[in-house]
Amino acid sequence: MTTLIFSSALRAQSHYNNLRGAPEDSARATELNFPGAIKIPDSDFYLKFGGYFRIDAIYDFNGSGSRNQLLMSQIYADNVPEAAFGPFFNMHVRETRFNFDIRRKTGLGRDMKFFIEFDFFDESLGAGQPRLRHAFVKYGGWTVGQTWTNLSDLRVFPFIMDFSAGDALFGGRSVQVRYEHDFTPHWQLGVSAEMPGLNGIFNPDTVVGRAMPVMPVGSIRITNNRDNGMISMGAQLEQIRWYGLGVGPTSTALGWGVVLNGRQGLTSDLFVTWHMSYNRGITDQILIFAGTDQGAVIRPDGSFVLEDAITFAVGAGYHITPKLQTNFALARTDRGELDFRSDHTLDNGYMGHYNLIYALDSHVMTGIEYQWGNIQNVDLATGSASRIQAMLKYSF
C-alpha cells in the first residue's frame, strides 16, 4: 500500500501530462476507468476537477536571469555586466495548476473527452494571472486542440522540481490535429498537423518582411510501449518562409528534426530515461529557444542559412524507500555554425538536477533539489549558475 501511495503522489506532480498512455490520458467515459470522477445527474457526462497547489522556495547562488526557474538561456557569461549580480532568494506559487476533465459516451458508442488546464507560469504575466496549458478534445484516436506535440513525451524525464527541467526537450505544447493508432498490442503510430511558430528567423540585415509560414508543421512518430518501459522515434517537417510584404524577397526553405525518446525500468525501484534530437533550421522547437528567432537566418538576397542543433538528456530515478525517492537528470544542448549571430549568443551548455522527494501521504509531498548549469557563448566566454530549490505540494 505504501508503494502505491508514493507512486500516486509522484504522478500528481504532472496531473495530466506525466505518462502518455496512462489511465488519465485515456478517453474512457466510465467511473471504473476515470478515477475520482462524478457523474453529472440527469446527463451522460462525467466530470473531474483536479490539479495541485505548490509553493517553491529558491536560493540562487549566482543571480541568474529568471527568479522562478533555472534556464540555460539566462545563465550569464563571465564577460557581461550581469555576471556581477549576486545571490537572491525567491518564493512563488506559479506552478500551482487546476484542470477540468469532462467525458461522455457519444451516440455512436464512442468515448469523448474534453480537457482544459491552467497554471500561472507565464513569466511575462503577473504572478496571479493564469496561463492556458492544455485545451483539447479527444475522440477515439483523434486529439484536437492545444496539448503536447506529437513528438513530445514527458516520460523521458524523471521527477524534477525545477520548472525548466525540460530545457533540452525538442517539442512543447502546440495547437494541433493528431491521430494515433495502436497497430499491434505494443506499437503505436502517431501523425499530426501542428501550428507552426511565428518566429525562428533571424534578420541581421533588416531585410524587409517578416516570418510568415503558410503550412502546418507535419510530424510522424512510432512508439513501442511495454510494461517496464517505452521507446519512440519520430520526425518533423516545418516550412520556413519569409514574406517580403511586396517589397522584400519572399522565399521558403524546409526545416526538419528527428527525435529518439526512451524510458526503461531496470528493477522495480530503478529506472533510466533518455532523449536525443537533431534539427536543421528549427532550433526554436527546442524548449529553451521557444518563441525566439533561433533556427534560420534570412540573407539580403532572400536565401536562408539553416542552423542546426543537437540535444541530449539522460535521467534516472530510484526508490530508496516506499516514500522516499531520488532523481537525477542531465541535459546538454550543442549548436553548429553560428556565423551570423552575435558574440553573446548561446553556443552550447548543460543543465543538471539532483533531488530527494518525500511523500507524506497520497496527496502531500515535499522535496529539495540542487540545480546547476554551465554555458559557452559564440565568443567562447563561459558562465555558470547554481541554486537550491525546496517545494511543498498538495495534489487534489
How would you explain this protein's 3D organization?
The strands form 2 sheets. This protein has a 16-stranded antiparallel barrel with strand order 2-4-5-6-7-8-9-12-13-14-15-18-19-20-21-22. Strands 10-16-17 form a 3-stranded mixed β-sheet, with no helix packed on it. Helices cover 3% and strands 52% of the residues. The protein has a single domain, classed as Porin. The protein has 1 helix and 22 strands. It is globular, with a radius of gyration of 22 Å. β16 (296-298) and β17 (304-306) form a beta hairpin. Mean pLDDT is 90; it is low at 1-19. The longest helix has 10 residues, at 2-11. The protein is mainly β. It comes from Phaeocystidibacter luteus.
The CATH topology annotation reads as: Porin
The stretches of 5 or more residues where confidence is low (pLDDT under 50) are: 1-19
Tell me the CATH architecture: Beta Barrel
Radius of gyration: 22 Å
**Integer average pLDDT:** 90
User: How helix-rich are the residues, as a percent range?
Assistant: under 10%
Order of helices and strands: HEEEEEEEEEEEEEEEEEEEEEE
Which features does this protein show?
mainly beta, 16-stranded antiparallel beta barrel, Porin, 1 helix, three-stranded mixed β-sheet, globular, DcaP
Topology:
Layout: H1 2-11, E1 38-39, E2 45-60, E3 88-92, E4 97-105, E5 111-119, E6 131-139, E7 142-148, E8 173-184, E9 187-194, E10 201-202, E11 210-211, E12 217-226, E13 229-243, E14 251-265, E15 270-280, E16 296-298, E17 304-306, E18 308-319, E19 324-335, E20 346-359, E21 364-377, E22 382-395
Parallel strand pairs: 10-16
Antiparallel strand pairs: 1-2, 2-3, 2-4, 2-22, 4-5, 5-6, 6-7, 7-8, 8-9, 9-12, 11-13, 12-13, 13-14, 14-15, 15-18, 16-17, 18-19, 19-20, 20-21, 21-22
